[in-house]
Amino acid sequence: MSETAYFSMQNLTKQFRGTAAVQDLWLDVQAGERIALLGPSGCGKSTTLQLIAGILRPDRGQIWLNGRSLNRVPTERREIALVLQKGLLFPHLSVGENVAFGLRMRGVSRAEQVERAIAMLDQVQLSGFENRKPSELSGGQAQRVALARSLVIQPKVLLLDEPLSALDASLRGDMQELILRLQAETGVTLLVVTHDQSESAVMAHRIALMFDGRLRQVDTPEALYQNPVDESVARFFGGVNFFAADAQQHRLTLAEGERLITHYPHHGTVHITIRPEHIHVMADRVCGANLLPATLIHSRFTGTQRHLTLRTSAGLQLQAWVPPSQQFAVGQSVFAHLPPEALWVFPGSATAAAPSPMAQV
Amino acid sequence: MTHPADIIRSTARLRPTALLRTTSLALIITVLFLPFLPLLIWSFAQGWYFPQLVPTQWTLANWAGLASAGSRVGQGFVQSLVIAGISTVLALLVGLPAGRALGLMEFPGKGAIKLFLLLPIIVSPLATLMGIQFVLIRLGLSGTLVGVVLVHLLPTIPYMTLVLSSVYANFDPGYEAQARSLGASPSQVLRTVTLPLIAPGVVVGALFAFLISWNEFLLTFFVGSGRVFTLPMVLFTSLQGGNTGLTAAIAITSIIPAVVFLLFSSQALQNDAAIGGLGDV
């Protein structure tokens, strides 16, 4: 790919017993960028992280950092710090010794080790914890020490493997904020592995979505939500409305016979989707395009939203998420408005063909 | 080195059930050490015959004989120490990588190798000694220290490997990956992370190996051909000679390394941060 990228993976491939864990992965990352490697468990995202860290060797492909190939550089000289899911603080060392570990390995003087470790603990809001044992820490504290331990060596790239999954829901938000703040302060390039799409959206400038060892789409969180490359991507991001249609530029004719307008011109047989939160539901007819008369079949209150299931007169079933303030009775006649800009058309066929290695667009 | 926190913790633990603990501790000590009492009496007795409850005449002659120039106890002690020490180190050198492979990795034939490792423990050395002796004579190792160390590896390596494989099975190699990514070279990882974490298991394995070698009689007897004279052989000779007092003194002497080793290693075994698969010993 481009030679100007700060950090890039080219054609990266790793197989385990003949099955590809990572297949032809291309990814360019800019300095200081935050990337989320997202995918279901077993999709190869953790393997990718281990390839980058140098714990595993790729069967094929190159990793470049700052103009230097890392393929023959051992883990300890890559200047890439890894924080694993469990934190893995060394149990025989104190918190301070844990944080100072990387400095000690680099032969930094004892006084400087202490000074920098204490300053780093301060940054993760654990001042005064340096003499504690890891066994005396809570899960959230241990994770913060692990973060401090990796950042104190001032790595060029910070790899986080599911940093929040071991934490209570109440702690996740704080930890997210802390990671984002530290990333902003240090300017470190961040690669975070996660299986949670909303977590990836919060944490990353760009999301690299992986299925079955292959990158399916690399894009901003907004694009992944609004403009997925295919139905499987849309489904992973919570998409529920998928229809076959015939496209004539901006005009769509659905298989059920409904006629709709979209902002995305196409030709021939296509599949279309609209996110449930983008469908407006109203009791009275208003003027405008893409207004479908429908009957309410189901209504579920989730606390922050109402999940409605509608059936149009032509038999089309729609899922719509509306604010709790909107109340409808089951069986009531309503109108569903599908904004043309939210009506996304999948390029090509909807049955996701093999993704191109240029999936990053 | 005892941490102040440890002292506080252990005294705090004593208080509520102090009486029960002291009683049971005294009971355990009695049961464990009572069998040694006759030995101790014998070693200081000048004749101790049936109707007497305790010997009528006491002497230090047995202990003096132990140290006298004519006795082979000193020589046997040193030889046993050297052989057990070398056997332990060699068994460690084989057992550490082998235990790691068996404990952490999956590979074809792993079950067969584990079974194969047990063979020297299952099969009586009596059955194999003739063949071993034949080979060692041809190699010119019969009656040498090297030959004896080699046969002592037969029982020590399996024990060491089995102990260390269970230690490694409880070891998360993620610690090593973590240390590498923080800038530690493989040798630094071994010194600063892996060894401190598996230390208790290594101590237990080494203790096993050392004591097996220290107490080994049959293998030494055959392969040593009377030229390698370890403490068990001195003991056996003395027993055959019928000198009960001296035998008792030698027997007590033979317990010394085990006691020293245990006292020395108890600190490592108590380290609750490290994993050894043993917990509180």
Question: Which helices and strands appear, and what pairs or packs with what?
Answer:
The complex is a heterodimer of chains A (about 350) and B (about 280).
Chain A: E1 7-16, E2 19-29, E3 34-38, H1 45-53, E4 60-65, E5 68-69, E6 80-83, H2 95-105, H3 110-123, H4 139-151, E7 157-161, H5 169-186, E8 189-194, H6 197-203, E9 206-211, E10 214-219, H7 221-226, H8 231-236, E11 241-254, E12 259-274, E13 280-282, E14 291-301, E15 306-312, E16 317-322, E17 333-337, E18 344-346
Parallel strand pairs in A: 3-8, 3-9, 6-7, 7-8
Antiparallel strand pairs in A: 1-2, 1-4, 4-5, 9-10, 11-12, 12-18, 13-17, 14-15, 14-17, 15-16
Helix pairs in contact in A: 2-3, 2-4, 3-4, 4-5
Chain B: H1 4-14, H2 18-33, H3 36-44, H4 61-67, H5 73-104, H6 110-122, H7 125-138, H8 145-169, H9 174-181, H10 186-215, H11 218-224, H12 231-241, H13 244-270
Output the keywords.
heterodimer, A: 361 residues, alpha+beta, Rossmann fold, OB fold (Dihydrolipoamide Acetyltransferase, E2P), 2 domains, six-stranded mixed sheet, five-stranded antiparallel sheet, 35% strand, elongated, B: 281 residues, mainly alpha, MetI-like fold, 75% helix, disordered C terminus
Short structural description:
The complex is a heterodimer of chains A (361) and B (281). Chain A has 361 residues and is α+β, with helices and mostly antiparallel strands.
In which order are the strands of the major sheet of chain A placed? 6-7-8-3-9-10
Sheet having the most strands of chain B? none
CATH-scheme architecture of the largest domain in chain A: 3-Layer(aba) Sandwich
**CATH topology type of chain B:** MetI-like fold
Proportion of strand residues of chain B: under 5%
SSE series of chain B: HHHHHHHHHHHHH
Mean pLDDT over the residues of chain B: 83
Oligomeric status of the shown chains? heterodimer
Q: Fraction of residues of chain A in helices?
A: 10-25%
